[in-house]
Amino acid sequence: MGRVASFTPRSLVMGVLLENEGLLETVVTRLETRYGPVLNQSPLTLFTYTDYYDREMGTKPHRCYLQFRTLVDPARLSTIKIETNALEDLFRNDIGRRVNLDPGLLSLENLILATTKNRSHRIPLCDGIYAEVTLQYENHAFQAFRWTYADYNSEEVKKLFFRWRSVYHEQLKQEGCLAT
User: Fold this and answer.
1) Which residues neighbour 96 within 8 Å (Cβ) at sequence distance 6 or greater?
2) Radius of gyration of the chain measured on its C-alpha atoms
3) Across the chain, how many H-helices and E-strands are there?
């Protein structure tokens, strides 16, 4: 029989889509107030993987990814998604969202994203929030699934999360969560 144990803390990561790049500093400041300092930030680039957000944001949005310094209990993922949805609402205008935040948990094994949309491969957490394994770490690299969003499936983003996985691994060692 298996024994119940505490979860290993995870690295909180965030996919950020912005109507315009001028919003980035304000959004990051608000996120840091809630989740602590950003440890790593990818460059801000134009989001060209799909036109899904173009109408709502009035233009091609800008995309970056954040990794926070403070590790989190994975049981908090649904709460974090609810909090980031509330932050999105603060920036909403008559057309729709000007900011889209996709919180996730990076572990040594995978990247899990939170969502409000149910699909056959998503696991209900609580309060209408679902979890999706978006990337799986296997054979020394992150591997995508058929449902993985196009940007997360890109080699550039998979390599980014590979680098951040190494940072997370060192954090676990320093915090005594792993044998050195």
Assistant:
1) 55, 56, 57
2) 16
3) 5, 9
CB proximity list for 30: less than 8 A, separation 6 or greater: 87, 90
Q: Quick check: 28 and 91 in contact, CB under 8 A?
A: no
The token pair that represents 174 in the structure block: 């320093």
DSSP letter, residue 127:
T
Among 64, 66, 68, 54, which residue's Cα sits nearest to residue 98? 54
Q: Residues 88, 97: contact at Cβ < 8 Å?
A: yes
144-159, pLDDT tens digit by residue? Answer: 999 999 999 999 999 9
Q: Which two tokens stand for residue 102?
A: 């996709």
| This prediction's pTM | 0.95
DSSP state of 98: S
